[in-house]
Amino acid sequence: MSDKPLEKIMLIEDEEDIRTVALMALETVGGFQVEALASGEAALTRLEEAVPDLIILDYMMPGMDGARTLAAIRALPNGTSVPVVFLTARVQAREIERYRRLGAIDVLVKPFDPMRLADQVRDAWSKRHAWNPTDHGPESDG
Amino acid sequence: MPGIRPTTARNPTVEARLSALSRRYASELPGRIDDIVACFERARSDPANRAARDLLRRRVHALRGSGATFGFAAVSEAAASLEAELDHWAARHEDLGEDGFRRVEALLQSLVAQRPGKDSSTAGDPPPEPR
Question: Which helix (H) or strand (E) holds A109?
Answer without folding.
Answer: strand A106-109
